[in-house]
Design goal:
The complex is a heterotetramer, with one copy of chain A (504 residues), one copy of chain B (289 residues) and two copies of chain C (322 residues).
Chain A (H helix, E strand, L loop, with lengths): L4 E12 L2 E12 L3 E5 L6 H9 L6 E6 L2 E3 L4 H6 L2 E4 L11 H5 L6 E2 L2 E2 L1 H14 L15 H13 L5 E5 L7 H16 L3 E5 L3 H7 L2 E6 L2 E7 L4 H9 L20 E8 L2 E8 L4 E6 L5 H9 L6 E6 L2 E2 L5 H6 L2 E4 L3 H5 L6 H13 L7 H14 L16 H14 L4 E5 L7 H16 L3 E5 L3 H7 L2 E6 L2 E7 L5 H8 L3 H6 L4
Parallel strand pairs in A: 3-10, 3-11, 6-9, 9-10, 15-20, 15-21, 18-19, 19-20
Antiparallel strand pairs in A: 1-2, 1-4, 4-5, 7-8, 11-12, 13-14, 13-16, 16-17, 21-22
Chain B lengths: L11 E6 L5 H17 L2 E6 L4 H13 L5 E3 L4 H13 L4 E4 L10 E4 L2 H15 L4 E7 L5 H15 L4 E8 L4 H14 L3 E6 L2 H11 L8 E6 L2 H9 L4 E4 L2 H16 L7 E3 L3 E4 L3 H4 L3
Parallel strand pairs in B: 1-2, 1-3, 3-4, 4-5, 5-11, 6-7, 6-8, 8-9, 9-10
Antiparallel strand pairs in B: 10-12
Helix pairs in contact in B: 1-9, 2-3, 4-5, 6-7
Chain C lengths: L13 H7 L1 H16 L6 H26 L7 H18 L7 H21 L5 H20 L4 E2 L2 H5 L3 E2 L2 E2 H19 L1 H11 L1 H6 L4 H27 L1 E2 L7 H11 L11 H20 L4 H27 L1
Antiparallel strand pairs in C: 1-4, 2-3
Helix pairs in contact in C: 1-14, 2-13, 2-14, 3-8, 3-9, 3-11, 3-12, 3-13, 4-5, 4-6, 4-11, 5-6, 5-11, 8-9, 9-11, 12-13, 13-14
The chains are: A alpha/beta (504), B alpha/beta (289), C mainly alpha (322).
The structure holds adenosine-5'-triphosphate (2 copies), beta-D-ribopyranose (RIP) and magnesium ion (MG) (2 copies).
């Protein structure tokens, strides 16, 4: 790929304290090409791209732009070089509008006075590229996670950069938004923009990538063409074969429902009734904004509902009371680990232990030894990659953080698992660990309700699929008969909604 | 420049004042410092910012920092007793100035009489109103001894004037800015009030600002302290009278007495520094001194 | 895409209005109650009084709004008001500089104090609470040192700030002008937007290339300048700069901003809200004085009303969300 | 490019120790400076003085640590200290209840006040700043109402809190005992750990089944009880409960907690740090008195030292991070 590289990371290294995270890695970005970074959770992908984004400076090695060595000490410098970055974790100001967020740091102005019309125009143009028709004056905090992710993408697109970095932009998106994003990427390719793309969805790599750089443990492993076989990619990435990506072991479901929801309504949720029996995994599918998150939060006690009831094992639960739900055996893995799942400054052990702290305490005293032992155990099972169990969870990679949230409820012995995009940002190997834990829970008589935008996961791991559309359950499919088309036709059963979300 | 030696420090003493955020006490300190300089005493001044506990801390420090004697202007009469315990224990001579210190055994108490002064102030206002009318009282920091004692004096003084009615009594915390707002509001509520009795000059001056043109004409104001600004207001005719304490004199005499006490000489147990009613008649004697 | 894009606007949305103006409801109820309780409340002169009395805290709170929007807090405003007033008077009355310099000097003192606080927290990495607490003490100490604990007469240009402009008292004129200015800067300029961004999500602001440190320094300078203005209004009304001027006012100023709907965790705040917050406080004080409530009980009532006023605001906002 | 740098460090990690004890370094430097400046500093009696003097603020700050760890702030502690001291004395001296009830009554008053503040913010959804600011005013007002603005003599059991226990002053004994208790509760019990979780990320804590509201109320009750204890120590030392007792102490208590390394945005804080923070403040005050620094300049110096002490802490932590 020789000398026409737009941007080169040349033998860069990076350590955090005593831990070497990137070890002499070389990656090239070419004009009009998509360079994929592939690696397990914690392999160092985000750290690598943060060197280009001006967040971290490499300890050793060089960064070359157009063949010339450059320094990128901060984000301004990165932007000045024509680099735009979509970070893995959302970086939006919730209290500000979509337009303000998209133009953050570079509002159109004259003598310091903001030109609001121009600001809105920039935002609208960026949103149009993604085919989004949201009101640009909506505060970002009112949007769902997927929409926020799209705003983040729009923000980067509006920079008109020469190099665009996309760190797991598709993790929170459903098929149709991903398709939109990819068409934008293709347009940019044609315009000669060089891109770096990170994703744990292997199918996306062949679709959009040109070549793949594989990292393992912070070391460069290989560069291969994007059409390399998936199994080969997995082997390069994890250093071993993975037998089954979706190892679902179905169990004969029990008679009595473990979780039953009756006529639940609130806000956009309309008269939802569903039952999940012991041993079952039920998937919730639907388009972005269909109300899956809202439903799961209502069942978990995280939000109020105006009518209807939730019962576990036939016992009715108080509305809007997470503690009561937890005691009844409900475990909730929320949509956004950063804002809803984790106390970032607390240790891995503490984060895993929150749901068991009170129940294992003796006369008010925390069982410190036991808590740590339990956390250590589940961390090993899930192969959480961390400095130590006492390291702040902030220092873990995104996928490993996600595993910790999951581990919390496994440790707590939750009988009813409510999962909202449970494997968002989790690598293929670790997904299998999570799926095996799901099997274990159902085998021991628990049940799982799982909202997922990942079709393979829905098809591979569930026993039944409930499809939501505009706050209703539009229909139910047995997993064997669920195909992408069948699900989509139920999901879009309300056309008006589809138009409003701008996903057509 | 203090505490150089470890012994034989008959030359150093501590003055603990309640607060220096008030010109009255600044004058008192200046009087004390000038006299200390003249006598060759190394005087260290600490300011409790009107907090009894801070003062207790400062007194405890004074007991161990090599001072040969202590002058105290107590934040509060009652608590001073406990605060002074370490000083008493250390056997240092104590002179109380301006405010009493309860039953503590002290060498001398140098003060003007707040109760008597309050009575004089009330009389001065009543007289200027020809013994009748509605008046407003401005109180000092709630719970401060000066507030309670002057209040007592006001009551005594007003008792003789049956036709004077106190329509409102509110605190402005001895503070000029606060008095400005409080009086503005009170005059709104009581437009027919013709007199304001303030527990110090600072509040009286705030009241005068609030009254604007009415000060000294439609509404008479009496203050307390005899600060420079207070005298100026008497000269201008906006303040009917102020009860002049002589803070510099209080400071000066307390140092003189402490110096004697340190040397082991006999001192007077009670030194009354005169309190004068200063009004247009005698202002010439005070102003511009 | 040539569409009209945005959602249809549905006339005047009363609920949304309440949501944005929760404290206003509290204020209106308060005024109604006072109107019923005493005929002295709703009179021209009394309203002017309230206007004058609210001006000091409100002007101070305008500046504070910038700091709070940027997720900081400025405890030093009371002391800065005093030092600025003292400095502006000292320079003329004692040091003999020309009178015309008085107000500029006062404002410069305020800006300088704000700059120091801002720099301590931006470059020295001190939490703003600590940086401004340190300044509270240092600046009050300097005021006492300069004045030797005595009041200084104000220069004639500062005195003028306490006078009338025709029928309207100057403090009210300044209140209105500085309020409009503050609202403009906060909502329409890059300075204001950057403050919102930094307060709303510092990390996102930094990653978007916003100069977070400079923004922090700027909001403190703004706060310092408004505090200085407020101090000079106060000195103008008293015709004298007091060493104890405005002490303890910081809590009132912060309360005004928060009653006005700002969040201490940053990213939210409005100048109009702040004004309403300051009015709530001023009206309570005025009303309790009018009703001659005893000084001790006044404090009890003021505290309760603060809680209730903010409570209303919280209630409104919740109702609208769901 | 061989990586020698990655060798993990073993044994006593001095840098990590500094990182966790930044303010301690500030304190040690402060003490060294005073030791060199005056022979009076490092004497038995003076150290006992400092111990007594630090006790009030430190005990108050221990309680405050819980609130700050839970991402709240409690401005009412000074007033609560006064009301509790007043209540405990009033009940015995004026209302004639048996002396043994004095301290329990004082503590109950503190707990009740804390409960009200906590409930206002947990159930009434008021920001803790506002809820506790309202309480600051209300509680001080009630103290004045009860006492009619006059000091009340303390009961003999409260007086005893200001006396000596053998050679050791009681305030120091209480300081040590309550410090150990606070550290135990904060680090070893569910109450403490919950406070950290709520302060670190309220939403995540709630979704993990932690009863966030109850936690909020609990930390305020704890703060109230410690404030009450502190108020009674103070009253014991003064042999009288003052209506103005401990006013303004809230800022000192908060400063002690923050100097001690806690973050006002919650989730971080240690009792030992808080003690160091309180000591920094007490040692500065004591030292400046010993050196007879002029009263006005004292304020300037105190402010500067607060900034420097916290600055040290920030510096240490930064050094270790990278
Ligand atoms: N600021 C930090 N301090 C300490 N360790 C860190 C820090 N940032 C990252 N790490 C560590 O560096 C390693 C690489 O992290 P990185 O975020 O680059 O992984 P990643 O490949 O992006 O993983 P994922 O797929 O989960 O996003 C991880 O082990 C992580 O714990
Ligand atoms: N806090 C909020 N305030 C206002 N609207 C919200 C809020 N949270 C969600 N919504 C809206 O509610 C609708 C349902 O969102 P929800 O998150 O439940 O959808 P979903 O099916 O989980 O989809 P996804 O997670 O992919 O966005 C969306 O239109 C979303 O914009
Ligand atoms: O005598 C003084 C002055 O009157 C002062 O104004 C307040 O405190 C008193 O003790
Ligand atoms: Mg990553
Ligand atoms: Mg969702």
């Amino acid at each position: 790929m020789g000398n026409d590289a737009l941007l080169v990371l040349d033998k860069v290294c990076k350590s955090f304290g005593p831990v070497q995270v990137i070890d002499e890695v070389t990656v090239e970005v070419h004009a009009g090409k998509v360079s994929v970074l592939l690696g397990e959770n914690g392999a160092g992908k985000s750290t690598l791209i943060k060197m280009i984004a001006g967040v971290h400076e490499p300890d050793a090695g060089r960064i070359l732009m157009d063949g010339k060595a450059v320094k990128i000490p901060n984000t301004k410098a990165s932007e000045a070089l024509g680099i735009a970055t979509i970070h893995q974790e959302l970086n939006l100001v919730p209290s500000m509008t979509i337009a303000e967020n998209i133009t953050l740091g570079r509002v159109p102005r004259k003598f310091g006075i903001i030109n609001r019309r121009a600001m809105r125009q920039i935002a609208r143009d960026a949103m149009d590229k993604l085919g989004l028709k949201l009101d640009v004056d909506t505060p970002v905090g009112e949007l769902g996670l997927a929409q926020q992710q799209l705003v983040e993408i729009a923000k980067a697109l509006s920079l008109d950069a020469r190099v665009l970095i996309l760190d797991e932009p598709t993790a929170a998106l459903t098929k149709s938004e991903i398709a939109h994003l990819f068409s934008v990427v293709n347009t940019l390719k044609a315009q000669g923009v060089g891109m770096v793309f990170i994703s744990h969805h292997l199918d996306e790599i062949a679709e959009i990538g040109d070549f793949v750089n594989v990292l393992r443990d912070g070391k460069f492993i290989a560069t291969v063409p994007a059409d390399t076989e998936e199994n080969e990619l997995v082997r390069l990435m994890v250093g071993r074969d993975i037998d089954a990506q979706f190892p679902r072991v179905a169990t004969e479901p029990g008679e009595q429902p473990l979780l039953s929801v009756k006529n639940l309504s609130d806000g956009m949720l309309k008269d939802i009734s569903l039952e999940v029996r012991p041993g079952e995994v039920v998937a919730l599918a639907g388009l972005m904004g269909a109300g899956r998150t809202e439903l799961i939060r209502a069942i978990a006690g995280a939000d109020k509902y105006s009518s209807g009831s939730v019962a576990v094992n036939g016992k009715k639960l108080a509305s809007f009371d997470v503690a009561a739900a937890t005691r009844a055996g409900i475990g909730h893995v929320p949509e956004d680990r950063k804002t809803q799942g984790l106390v970032l400054d607390a240790s891995v052990a503490e984060n895993i232990g929150y749901a068991t702290m009170a129940s294992t305490a003796k006369s008010g005293l925390v069982d410190r030894k036991g808590q740590k032992a339990r956390a250590q155990q589940v961390a090993e099972r899930l192969r959480i990659r961390m400095g130590s169990i006492d390291a702040p969870i902030r220092s873990l990679s995104g996928g490993n953080q996600q595993k910790a949230v999951f581990g919390r409820w496994f440790t707590a012995g939750a009988k009813v698992l409510l999962l909202d995009e449970p494997t968002r940002g989790v690598d293929v190997g670790a997904k299998v660990e999570i799926y095996e834990l799901i099997n274990e829970i159902t085998a021991s008589g628990g049940c799982v309700l799982m909202a997922s935008s990942e079709l393979p996961e829905v098809l591979g791991m569930s026993d039944r699929v409930l499809v939501m559309s505009q706050g209703r359950i539009a229909g139910e499919l047995a997993t064997e008969e669920a195909t992408q088309d069948a699900i989509m036709s139920l999901a879009v059963s309300n056309v008006h909604r589809e138009e409003e979300m701008g996903t057509k | 420049a203090c505490n150089r030696g470890t012994e034989a420090e008959a030359g150093s003493a501590t003055l603990a004042v309640s607060t220096l955020n008030n010109p009255f006490f600044v004058d008192l300190r200046d009087g004390a410092e000038a006299e200390a300089e003249a006598q060759g005493i190394d005087l260290s001044v600490v300011d409790a910012q009107n907090d009894s506990a801070t003062q207790a801390n400062q007194l405890a420090t004074a007991a161990t920092n090599g001072s040969a004697g202590l002058i105290i202007n107590a934040v509060d009469t009652e608590t001073a007793e406990a605060g002074l315990a370490p000083v008493v224990e250390a056997g240092l001579p104590i002179v109380a100035v301006d405010r009493a210190v309860g039953d503590t055994k002290i060498a001398s108490f140098v003060a003007s009489d707040n109760v008597a002064g309050g009575e004089q102030a009330a009389k001065a206002l009543a007289e200027s109103l020809d013994g009748k009318g509605k008046i407003i009282v401005l109180e000092g920091v709630p719970g401060a001894s000066a507030t309670n004692e002057r209040g007592e004096g006001f009551d005594k003084g007003l008792a003789e004037y049956k036709d004077i009615e106190v329509v409102s009594s509110q605190t402005a915390n001895f503070d000029r800015a606060e008095a400005l707002d409080v009086v503005t509001n009170l005059m709104q509520a009581n437009p027919d009030a013709t007199g304001i009795l303030a527990m110090n000059d600072e509040m009286a001056l705030g009241a005068i600002q609030a009254l604007g043109d009415k000060a000294g004409k439609d509404v008479k104001v009496v203050g307390f302290d005899g600060t420079e600004d207070g005298f100026k207001a008497v000269e201008d005719g906006t303040l009917v009278a102020t009860i002049a304490q002589n803070p510099a004199e209080l400071g000066k005499q307390s140092v003189q007495i402490l110096a004697k006490a340190i040397k082991g000489e006999e001192v007077e147990a009670n030194v009354q520094v005169a309190v004068d009613t200063v009004d247009e008649k005698n202002i010439a004697e005070y102003a511009g001194e | 895409m040539s569409s009209v894009a945005t959602a249809p606007k549905k006339g005047f949305d009363f609920k949304a209005f309440l949501a944005n103006n929760g404290a206003l409801v509290g204020l209106v109820i308060l005024c109604l109650a006072l109107f019923i309780a005493t005929p002295r409340f709703l009179t021209g002169p009394n309203l002017l009084n309230i206007g004058i009395q609210v001006s000091t805290i409100a002007v101070m709170a305008f500046g504070m709004t910038f700091v709070i929007v940027a997720a900081g807090i400025d405890l030093s405003v009371g002391s800065v008001a005093a030092l600025s007033a003292m400095g502006s008077s000292y320079a003329i009355t004692t040091a003999g500089l020309p009178d015309g310099l008085s107000i500029p000097i006062g404002l410069a003192v305020g800006a300088l104090c704000g700059w120091v606080t801002g720099a301590m927290s931006a470059y020295g990495k001190l939490p703003t609470f600590i940086a401004s607490l340190a300044m509270l003490t240092v600046v009050r100490g300097l005021t006492l040192v300069i004045s030797d604990g005595r009041p200084i007469s104000t220069s004639s240009s500062v005195s003028w700030l306490g006078d009338d402009l025709g029928p309207i008292p100057m403090p009210i004129v300044i209140l209105v002008v500085s309020g409009l200015l503050a609202a403009f800067v906060l909502n329409r300029t890059v300075i204001g937007k950057n403050a919102f961004a930094v307060g709303g999500n510092t990390e996102a602001a930094r990653l978007s290339g916003i100069p977070v440190k400079r923004v922090l320094v700027t909001v403190f300078v703004i706060s310092g300048v408004f505090a200085a203005l407020s101090g000079m209004i106060l000195a103008g009304r008293l015709d004298s700069a007091q060493p104890t001027l405005a002490s303890g006012y910081e809590l009132d100023a912060i309360a005004a901003v928060v009653i006005g709907g700002a969040s201490l965790s940053g990213g939210v705040g409005r100048i109009s809200g702040t004004l309403i917050g300051a009015l709530v406080l001023a009206v309570i004080r005025n009303g309790l004085n009018l009703l001659s409530v005893s000084a001790f009980w006044q404090q009890v009532v003021i505290g309760a009303v603060i809680a209730i006023a903010v409570g209303f605001d919280v209630l409104r906002r919740k109702n609208v969300k769901h």
